[in-house]
Amino acid sequence: MSKAVDRPGAEEIPSAPGARRIKTGAGLGAARLRAAADWPARQVTTSFVLPAVLLLFFLSIFPLLVSAYLSLTRFQFVPGGFALRWVGLANYGKLLVGIEQSHFLGVPKPPTVVGWLLFGLAASVLLLFAVRGITSASGRRGVVGRAAFAVVAGAGIWLAVRTLTPGGFPGTLLTTLIYVVVGIIVQYWLAFLCAQEVAGRRFFRVVFLLPMMITPVGIAYTFRILMDLGKGPFAPVWRALGLAEVSWANYAWGARLVVMLGDIWQWTPFMFIVLLAALESLPAELIEAAMVDGASRWQLFWRISWPQLIPVTSTLILIRMIEAFKIIDLPNVLTNGGPGTATESLTLHAFMAWRTLDIGGSAAVAYMLLFVVTFAALSYVNLAHRRLAEAA
Amino acid sequence: MRRRVSWLLVSILLLLPLAGVTPAASQGKPFDGVTVNVLTFTGPQIAEPLQRRGPDFGKLTGAKINVITVPFSDLYQKVLTDVATGTNSYQAFVFDPQWMADFVTPGYLEELTSRVNADKALQWTDIMPFFRNFSATYGGKIYTVPLDGDFQMVYYRTDLLQQAGLKPPQTWADYFKIAQTFNKKDLNGDGTPDFGSCIAKKRNAQSYWMVWSVAAGYLQAKGTREGSFFDADTMKPLTNNEAFAEALRVYVQTGQYGPPDELNWDVGDSRSGFVTGRCALSIDWGDIGPLAVDPKTSKVQDKVGAVILPGSPRVLDRKTGKLVACTVQKCPYSTGGVNHAPFAAYGGWSGAINKAAPAKVKDAAYAFLSYMSQPAQSSTDVTIGITGFNPYRRAHFTNLAPWLKSGMSAAAAKNYLGAISASLNSANMVLDLRIPQNQRYQQIVLDTAIAKMLAKELNIDQAMKEITDGWEAITNELGRDTQLKAYRESLGIPTK
């Protein structure tokens, strides 16, 4: 009885041992010939992919590796040109424990009672989350992932509690996170409202898309003019309200709010257009059936529309989150990062260092941003995105 | 028909180059076909005269001048990344001569000594010695052609002071008295309250020079060679002592009489504020004087006075770090017991040439810079507010005709030029910082700490500590001996 084996050309034949070897050898030779003949066909796939891979390598991976090296060096001018002096982790040390610490991490103060309560609450939730990882059957990777997330998120919350305490001051790291979290929540909410069935929807659709067509620096200058309370269009209103002596530019939260307003105005259309497409693709039969059954508007949304929108929403937030971390144009043009460093994002922090050719320091800030974005994106994908997609 | 049109088009295309090239070629202009890319900052100041005079220079010489502009805060790195990477897309630069330490050391700039010495039309000795010997020269060699003269001064409204019977400020206490008198009063007749003092305080703009204009009189009293940034023996910063604390207190206090959003005002805003009559006082380079003459924008024509930066009757005792009263020994250059230390902030926009440019292009670039600086052009340019060029030649100070032609009255011109002359001729003039990577000391550490202090993120003591620690860290990074040597050389002190 013949027995099929996995290897092509190696069919087992009940015969003398030598004959079997000859037969197998002949099969192998034929297979090699066929493989050689197929080689060009197999390389077609590689040759189609290779240019893209090489392009990606030179435009993305190579700069990533070079900037990692730069973050470990110091740029200096020397006779005949410049030199990159190896300084190890000194540029990172400067950010985390050195002279740039207050700029990067902020100025911490002892938490108030409310701060302690908030931190205690957040720490309890994170602890519970980590413990559930151990008790549930999520595997070793799952436990380590949950523990790492709990530690890093806990440290972030502790930093936020201490630097947002009166007398303290958040650094560029936390300022960027505030832009991302607040911006995405408000943008999504506004976009969702805009995507509803309202009168004049076609007109609003066009109007709402306009910010996407304007260059970000143009938006920043527009907001700079709009928000000029001395000469801008709202100056008379401001004076009429008796607020002529008050300026948002002098207050950290005022300036941050203006930056966030610009960012929300700029990015809400992106959320809007994707949500609108998702809403319009929902099958009308389900909604009609629910309406026939007497469902209210809220029930229509919560029971019918929302579950179907979850995958789109989740992906949308992920894309927007990665993009939002890179905010630079608005704070740069509107406030130059001021007052003080109140509106400075991580990208602007890196850009300012780069402007004075502190290339190592700039690369270190950029790498810290990369770590934060990677951590946030991975956490989001593992903790929220997959579950939401599966639930949907 | 179609064939006829095609022939016509071909003929036009063939004849077009001839029409453009032949006349120029026949005239044998020295730089026919040569293009010079000049990099400077986004105008209208500085870029405007280069753009306006470029075509005139082209008609004379055949060279094509392309003026490329970038925001001020990007200029330093734009120049250096272009030359350091070997891109060399710019053949000439109009920039801050303060940065020369970073540009000359790696050998990126063309030495101009022999060209300048051979160029009679430039009238080199007509340029005031400070700009020739400090702004244009590094290590005893000439690298730039001065196009501008920079000193910061205090501007005041002559009409207001006259009405109130007040004199121009000699000390910062005088400054506050004037500012307080006119703050929240309508100074330009538009029915809205205006401001006693307007100073550009925006971060990451040009504001870090303003704070030093206040501090200079407290920190330097024994002449230019004493220096105001570091101890010239140890390279320890002079930024953590009673004198600097007092200067910061004064700087913060100016905000009480300023516009509510002063922290977001750059020099464009403060200049505009002053010439539209919204401010009684301001600190600025020489720009407000000519800008106030323009009838299209100015509401203060012939109402503007300028005066040397206010001084202090108390100065830093460098041994103890205390603020002590001026005596003849402690303040040898004081006037009436007040130590004035006019700050040569920035040093004046200057033109330099990329060493890596082809020889013919370097010749054309030098000819253009010389043309811009020659009295025939510069005497007019310094009287036009939008140019951003301020007086730097003897001819600019002695020949009043261009000033009168620009619309300035003789009295206003004398007052304006007198304030600059007083600063320029002061034996206690404060030189700007010119050591390797001075941008990091000033534009990053100083500017950020001052901005944080103004925003109340830091108090004065914390700001002083942040500046001192930051400067020490950079000095240690770059090498204390190297930085000290450069600092001493910039002050004209022999290296030990």
UniProtKB/TrEMBL annotation, chain B:
InterPro entries: Bact_solute-bd_prot1, SBP. Keywords: Signal. Pfam families: SBP_bac_1. Residues 1-24 form the signal peptide. PANTHER family: ARABINOSE-BINDING PROTEIN-RELATED, DIACETYLCHITOBIOSE BINDING PROTEIN DASA. This is Extracellular solute-binding protein. It comes from Candidatus Segetimicrobium genomatis. The lineage of its organism: Bacteria, Bacillati, Candidatus Sysuimicrobiota, Candidatus Sysuimicrobiia, Candidatus Sysuimicrobiales.
